[in-house]
Design goal:
The protein is α+β, with helices and mostly antiparallel strands. The protein folds into two domains: about 450 residues, Creatine Kinase, Chain A, domain 2 (2-Layer Sandwich), CATH 3.30.590; about 160 residues, Helicase, Ruva Protein, domain 3 (Orthogonal Bundle). It is about 35% helix and about 15% strand. It is built from 24 helices and 19 strands. Strands 1, 2, 3, 4, 5, 6, 9, 14 and 15 form a nine-stranded mixed sheet that branches. Strands 7-8 form a two-stranded antiparallel sheet. Strands 10-11 form a two-stranded antiparallel sheet. Helix 11 runs parallel beside helix 17. The longest helix is centred in the C-terminal third of the chain and has 21 residues. Belongs to the glutamate--cysteine ligase type 3 family. It catalyses: L-cysteine + L-glutamate + ATP = gamma-L-glutamyl-L-cysteine + ADP + phosphate + H(+). Its EC number is 6.3.2.2. InterPro entries: GCS, Gln_synth/guanido_kin_cat_dom.
Amino acid sequence: MGLLSLGTPLPWEEAKNYADYIRHHGIKQFLWIYHKLKDKQNDCLLWGDEVEYMVIAFDEENKNAKLSLRLYEILNELQKEEEAALKNPNSDKMVKTSWKPEYGAYMLEGTPGVPYGGTLKELLQVESNMKYRRQLAAKYMKPNEVPITIASFPRLGCQGQFLEPHYEPKGEASRSLFVPDEIINPHARFPTLTANIRKRRGSKVAINMPIFHDIKTPKPFIDPTIPRNRNLFPEDKEAAEGMALPDHIYMDAMVFGMGCCCLQITFQACNIEEARRLYDQLANIGPIMLALSAAAPIYRGYLSDVDCRWNVIAGSVDDRTKEERGLEPLKNNRFVINKSRYDSIDCYISTDKTFKPEYNDLDLVYDKEICKNLMDNGIDELLARHVAHLFIRDPLVIFKESLEEQNDENVSDHFENIQSTNWQTMRFKPPPPNSNIGWRVEFRSMEIQITDFENAAFAVFIVLLTRAILSYGLNFYIPISKVDENMKMAHRRDAVLSEKFWFRKNVFEKNNIMYDDYVNVDNGIIQQQNVHNNNNSLDNKSISIEDEYEQMSIDNIINGDGDKFPGLITLINHYLESINIDIESRCILGKYLEFVKKKAKGEIQTTAKWIREFVRSHPKYQQDSVVTQEINYDLMKTIEKIQKGEAETPELLGNFKV
């Protein structure tokens, strides 16, 4: 998660004085990277996935599943194996995994030891590598501990014991009513980040997710577990003064969001233009995959009326002041900012011929002085506005040592300080200085799934989609405001079945909706046919932006409508049929695509729906939205069995084997 530097972090009272210094040198560093590497060509396709795990400790006697805070004990052992493999002269063949810490002291991030390449053969290694990572992590855990891939821990912040070992919520960094600071990764960056967000904002973060109203849930729902009368910190009064909303689940600390787990994919493109194109084209896939991978319906021991984690994380790092949120007139701040620094992207950045300026229809907030500086130094306007938009944010963690004289030609610390704390659905990643790494993009919206099979299926699907995008010049552009609307719809309960999402009608290069040589679906193969235009006035004329897109179900987006829209899986299948691929490999990849197809059709439940139904059908559930300690214990135990292939769950996995 972000830039992990070593040194002495500055408290906000000191750090804020160096914000302009960091911005100034960050822009200089970006310019050096850009001009040195903008013409870098022919980088091969490399990619990798990031899987995040929670370490769950089972207390069998008390039927309690808790978060184990042994991050560094486990991580140290995992990194020893990694270091030993790197010392091997054939290290490229030996390094199978790489491990990093995450925000929570109960979290691990595992990636392949080296990136995957562009061959289909390497796609077949994804699931086995994920399984190996899980087995390796478990090797260094206690007998009662298990690495679980679940998006949000249901009992985080509840009354009683949900941590191993137990601590009371009295921490100075977060000042939370519900969670202790010991839950935060002890690396100096993380407690400082937590405290500085609170100090910059002028209050604790306030996250409110709507409660799921079951038969016996009180109306209005006023959470009786909030200690409204606590008087340990000045911020304790915030809940009683209106931060905790009726009919909502209230959370007040960064860990409620950054303590969630996800599945992310990073791609290295062959050049900067391809990276920018992938950034744009995948932007509207983000909300679709968020809804399809929905896996987070429970917070602080209550069933919520949403299925996804994204808005929880957005609220958990929202450092905007009242002025920046538009609640007070601007006096001490420079901008009114309409989003948290963790949110969907606000602008497209590609200069591809299919891009139209009208697609960037949001009133983008950006630093005009920085934008002018970038453009004066040879950066095109689209990219300059993107970077200047990121740089409206203040750096949140500044290490004292980083303020010493640096050569901006050889480092990117100050640029990454701000870049890495803009957590958006897509991230455009310049190469690190003095490395052989190319221009990259990161796809960030997906929720983690319970099994390695599911996570591999989603990862392979996205990788194959990028190959189809680049091979066929696919065009997914819609106005960026519609992407924002899609993000909102993706959070809704059962969105994958009940909601429709804005998507482009014609994803091929021509602009007309109806044109000769239109591509349609026939037995899963793209074929050409003549479609006669019934409205001659449209011939040879550009259609309006509003006519380029419509609302579609996720089933239609993924699988096609059998008529005009082919569906993403059909496009991927056509790509696979256009290249040399052996039957065995085709069958394995086909299994992953079939899983995504069934998920989109609703033949297989989302993880969120499965979790919700597990809770509601539990014999101890009181139909009051409360997820008790025992229900959570049984849920975690069942998930452990599913991960090991010891439990049959056709509603979640169909007939697929894990």
